[in-house]
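Forwarding these from the shared drive since the link keeps breaking.
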Amino acid sequence: MVKKSPENASPVAQFEQSLESLEQLVEQMETGELSLEASLSAYERGVGLYRQCQQALEQAELRVRLLSDPAQPETAEPFDPPSHDG
């Protein structure tokens, strides 16, 4: 079986990797040891990773909607997060 290269993988498939990279960038920036130029570069990369994650989540939501009701995905209700009330 042939694996997709990372460049050809869907945003949904790359979500975990993008999120992990974003978390690592945040940790680096929070140390305060990066130069201004490195901080700006890391921030720019972080924005790109954030957008990739957001796009992946949107595509995943669309897939769930299509699976829930393929005839009318626009009528699907968003999932409510579970309540954490005692």
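-- next protein --
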Amino acid sequence: MSPTVLVGLIVAAIVIVVIIVIVMRRRKDEQGEPLPESDIDRELPPSQEEPAQEPDEDVESEAAPEEKVPEAAEEQEVKAAEPIEKRVTAPGVRLDESEEAVAAQKLLDAKRERKLKKLRKGLAPTRGGFIAKIGAIFKEKKIIDPALLDELEEALITADVGAKTTEWFITLLKEALEKDELADPDAVWSLLRSEVERVLAIEAEPWDFSKSKPFTIMVVGVNGVGKTTTIGKLASQYSGQGHKVVLAAADTFRAAAVNQLEIWGRRTKCEVIKSKEGADPSSVVFDAIKHAKENDADVVIADTAGRLHTKAPLMEEIKKVSRVMEKALDGAPYQILLVLDATTGQNALQQVKEFGDAIDLTGIALTKLDGTAKGGVIIGICHEYKIPVRFIGIGEAKDDLREFDVKDFVDALFYKEKEAEEE
């Protein structure tokens, strides 16, 4: 290497060192801490730098000035630290008992109105078919006479209320007409509404899971009515309430039904007891109840094979499943829920008859009310068979399967949009 090149390298090294020193000085000046000369002359490599000493929590730093908290912030912190009881006693804040009761009632009323609004929307097809026809008759005729009753009879039959129930309604109206109790269409409307509410209000004890553990529910119905979906939604609601739910996949004739129930089991974090395809359904429900007892489960919901209600051998199998459940647990099944599709109309009445002849039905779940004008069948079911409606389905969401409330249902069914808009 020539002397000239060597000198050039030394000069370049000196320039680099000077640049580094200048940069370090500027950084230290920006931080307000001048760099001692002893540190300028030597720079430790990263591997040799001394670690920063952690401050001692027990020793207060004299150099650190006390941070001044704004007075407004101090007041907010003091208020936040105060117990709720102390804060609400401040003048102008605390409500007296009567005002609190009014405020609580307003919240309840608002919640009910939201539920009613969704129910009205779900029952819009039925209201548009059943109630709209009756409303149109009353709009055209202001005088109550036999001709009006004939038109009303036709409207009720086409609304799938059922022949027997329609006949009963018309007889009731004729008797009231003879007694001069029906002065105008509003009187007829009022009588219909009150009678529908009375028919639907079948006395039935609420489901009480504390009466038995596990509480067993057997779900039956023909194919395609939404039986497995109804089970999944019930499992979702009950597990959300803190109950431990076990699902029995006793529809062993259809692999898709087992798969569908397993999907609901994963969604709701509920155990699903199943067997191989074609296995005896009774053995599945027996194993499910046994498993529930051993694992302290609260509820067992048994899915069963969807079957044609006209096939006697298949209905006999339903009876067998019910008997085996009783052997597995005294008194089981505590509830036998028949799932019906509202879109089937009059066929739903026939299904109630056939299943009711085979087993003791304790409740009805009427699905797909939001997609049909044939929802009037619910009135015929309750009038003819006196079986309480436990659940209604008004949509796809899990919360759209809701417990049947007679008053809310009748309010939504006889709801008049035009009058509500005028109000």
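Strands lie at 215-220, 245-250, 271-273, 299-304, 335-341, 363-367, 389-393, 401-403. The chain is about 55% helix and 10% strand.

- D.
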